[in-house]
Amino acid sequence: MEGFNHSRVSEFILLGLTDSPELQIFFFVVFSIFYLMTMLSNYLILLTVISTPHLHSPMYFLLSNLSLIDMCLSSFATPKMIVDFFAQHKTISFEGCMCQIFFVHLFTGTEIVLLISMSFDRYIAICRPLHYSRVMSQRVCVGLVVTSWTVGFLHTMGQLAFTLYLPFCGPNVVDSFFCDLPLVIHLACTDTHILGIFMISTSGVIALISFLLLLTSYIIVLFTINNHSSTGSSKALSTCTSHFIVVLMFFGPCIFIYVWPFTNFLVDKVLSVFYTIFTPLLNPLIYTLRNQEVKTAMKKKLNYQFFSLGKTTPLYSVQ
Prior knowledge:
Elements: E1 11-14, H1 21-51, H2 58-75, H3 78-84, E2 91-93, H4 94-127, H5 132-135, H6 138-163, E3 173-174, H7 181-185, H8 193-226, H9 231-259, H10 266-290, H11 292-312
Helix pairs in contact: 1-2, 1-3, 1-10, 1-11, 2-4, 2-10, 4-6, 4-8, 4-9, 8-9, 9-10, 10-11
């Protein structure tokens, strides 16, 4: 990192969410529970899809990859935030700050493309059902996932390449619980107006355009469903509604934060918490609570695990 940045700043101070000791204890308990639930629920979805043969379809393949990304998105900053609730000085090294910027844009960029891939899957399944098996082949599904990670990587490298060369020579206080790009570049000892425009065009506007494209695709799908009133259409409507709720929860905070990057509103912290902590937990809850196939497969998986544990109990009993 020193080869890229010759500044005097070696670490940043994170102000976190609050200075109140009581609230810090409360947030520690709440976010610890949320983080554990997020990791367990997404891991359960991932395990269920992998171990259940009849869920080896394009939609559930993409869903399992969404769970993987949500586990990553929830882990890049949340554990440090939880530990920092009991720290006197909430600091992060320059390298650690750059890593957080790298991972947040990698995972959010990847999730944006994956959500578009999921909407494409639903569009083909509902609007072009006769061509579904040919279009959404295994090769195409793997290609969509690889493309998602590739776009996410290229996006974050484009953001980070400019940030590493900025001179950070004085202020080092980040008013958040993690290093977010709009807040960090604002601390640079130079005019960051051009970089701000670049960031808006590559993050905020891209997120906004992606959301509008997804909204358009779901409107087309809903019109198609409305013209086919049947049990299958009702199931498709439920699935698309779930997908759209996920899209709305994910894109809403991202668009607000990155379209107005140089504002310092309290709501920015709330939205950052929402898309890094709450959304990765709400995703599996929305999919599992609204999808009977996944719920049934999960129940069978859990029952099998409990049954296996019950069979091994006598091995440890007193003879």
